[in-house]
Amino acid sequence: MKALKQQLAALTIGLCTLASAQAEQLDVMTSGGFTAAFQRLSPTYAQTSGDTVDTILGPSMGKAHEAIPNRLARGENADVVIMVGYALDDLIKQGVVDPASKVDLADSRIGMVVKQGAAKPRIDTEEAFRKTLLDARSIAYSDSASGVYIQNKLFKQLGVEQQVGSKAKMIERIPVASVVASGQYEVGFQQVAELLPVPGVTFVGKIPESLQSVTRYSAGIPRNAKHPEQARKLLAYLSSAAVQPEVNATGLDSVPR
């Protein structure tokens, strides 16, 4: 605890030295999985650095108007993008993001929720999880990385693709937990960090580790960013050891370093 406090103090002192420089507004595009962590961390960074942070939300991929690649393609400004690692890699290959700026931030695992007050089914083993899927009247999953994995791989791996196909639905744009909370779907799957902030649901747990698809969230700086130097300092803060307790509290796992 003492060491952590010392790290935080040193980080705060370092950030405070930035406050004397000209303050800038940083436009940060972040996808769902890291959003809760960023919303915890960005006020502290803004207060100590003197910069202001404008948070712009959007999925890492997909056809939605709000998706980060689509925003960038339309010419929207971003000083930092935070998104699924392989989606960021695509932007790097396209020449949109500076490859030298890439920083790994956190790992995210898939979890399940039911409506608040409903019984919590077992999902602690592969067989129990398979039974829960077969017994569920309706299943919702996201349109981002976790949902793509569930739809294209997980159902097939468990041998339930035919049985659940007609009752499973990919939910676009909005949090999966919200449609479970409203009673539209009985169970919902998404990355844990995207499930926990939504009211009206009960978090059942993470799916079995043998069936997990771990999504790494990374960040980078677009080549046309207006404030690349300030962006690099923000990324150093977000990936520092001192902020990991806050990151972990949102349901994310620290990246092994």
Could you characterize the architecture of this molecule?
The structure is a single chain. This protein is an alpha/beta fold and 257 residues long. The chain has eleven helices and ten strands. The strands form two sheets. A five-stranded mixed beta sheet has the order 2-1-3-10-4. It is elongated, with a radius of gyration of 19 Å. It starts with a helix and ends in an 8-residue tail after the last helix.
The major pleated sheet works out as:
5 strands, mixed
What does the overall shape look like?
Answer: elongated
CATH superfamily of the largest domain: Periplasmic binding protein-like II
- Gyration radius from CA atoms, angstroms: 19 Å
Total helical segments: 11
Order of helices and strands: HEHEHEHEEHEHHEHEHEEHH
CATH topology of the largest domain: D-Maltodextrin-Binding Protein, domain 2
CATH class of the largest domain: Alpha Beta
Distance between the termini: 20 Å
- What is the number of beta strands? 10
Helix amount, in percent? 40-55%
Q: How is the largest sheet built, in terms of strand order?
A: 2-1-3-10-4
Q: How many domains, in number, for the residues?
A: 2
Coarse structural class: alpha/beta
Which CATH-level-2 architecture of the largest domain?
A: 3-Layer(aba) Sandwich
Mean pLDDT: 92
Poorly predicted runs are: none
Organism: Pseudomonas kuykendallii
InterPro entries: ModA/WtpA
Protein name: Molybdate transport system substrate-binding protein
Keywords: Signal
